[in-house]
Amino acid sequence: MNWEPLSINSFPAWALLQDVTFNNVALSEVAGKGIGITTSVEVETNTDTVTPIKFLEIPYDLVLSSEAVDEYAKVDQNFKALLEKMGRQSTRLDIMLYLLPHMVQAAAATDAVSNHTRRCASTPWTEYLRFLPSGVPVPTLWSEEEKHLLNGTSLEESLQAKLATLDKEFNEFREKSSELPFWNSFLWESPTACSLAHWVLADAWYRSRCLELPRSGASMVPALDMVNHSTNPSAYYEENNAGGVDLLMRPTSKLSGGEEISISYGEAKSPAEMLFSYGFIDQSSSIREMVLNLPMVEDDPLSMAKAHIFNGPRVVTLTATDGSVTWTSPFALLMCLNEEDGLEFRVLQDSEGNRQLRMFWLEADVTDQAHDVQSLVQDHLLLPVFQLRVVVTLHDAVATQLGHLESHLDLPNENNASSVRSSCRDASELLKRIERGVLAGAMETLDNEVS
């Protein structure tokens, strides 16, 4: 399934038709960033500016949110049946289910050999997605050789897990949609049939272009998603009273004519998270942080019960600030407690006959405090012993990760392959340098805590 992309020169006509308002701004090629939005004239705000300068106004009807998916299901009964068949699992999956049929319809409209007779209800997104790039630079869309460049980084396991999840989701999507006659024909029995690659692309679009709106929640917003990121943004976005979204100039800002407008994609995102979600690392960001998975202790008979009760990421977050590295891990202390310390798990039956796993500390039910074990043990006589266990465990995990990372530095077969894009190579090398520094700093911190 492929569709003919629309030239960005056609975008103003589409925007005008959809009542997207551009105020003294235009789409432009931005060096090193692709398409961005720039000013047409010099603009400036100061402390006396009462009404913010508005660059863009996107109508409510164009905002692709969970609510928009619900509204579309009221218009297209076949889509409603697909939603019900798949189940409402998350906003991400709902929006991906919305995007896939529009991708098929866009492909059918531009495929000369397609004899597609079935159609879903068209929306502005049917055409808008043809403006979106198929080459999103996120690692899930890298080649196999390029993905290998991330071996040794915190993204190695994350990328493998994400790809496995996408494969599982796609297989479930194919299996369930095939049971519905309309969707079996529309999605799978035509020259424009879906594939795993299209599912991965829809996910990449969602993750790289989705914004968190105060009222609408996670949403994709046409035109606004073409504004690039900066750690020193000149603009911000907000929902207006009509439910649409405005792009507004930040107070006390000044932009010359032709200068790029930028927003922040998130001030607290780690380099790995930026690369994973957006396909780049902001070198001007001061955030030097990484998240490291904590492996379960193989000979711990309580490991499965701990993981079940904790029900969250079993990780340690390492943060480098002012020349030192600190760590946080709500799971590490629970991970290091044993039955002889007073930790116990019991399967209890409630009044309705349902069986539940419960966690006990010194005979008290503390199931609801699984994410705050520190408060349970802070007055315990063996608290220093517990803390030492945690530090030793984290020291081992950090040392293992650092050794793994260093074993993948400067591998000629990986870095010099002709099929590897320089942008992927540069991003992976930058991530390795950052994470190596964080891990080395964490080792120093943990060494000091052990002694």
TrEMBL record:
Domain of life of the organism encoding this protein: Eukaryota
UniProt GO molecular function: protein-lysine N-methyltransferase activity
Organism this protein belongs to: [Torrubiella] hemipterigena
Name the record gives this protein: SET domain-containing protein
Gene Ontology cellular-component terms listed: nucleus
Residues covered by the SET domain: 136-266
Family matches, as PROSITE patterns: SET
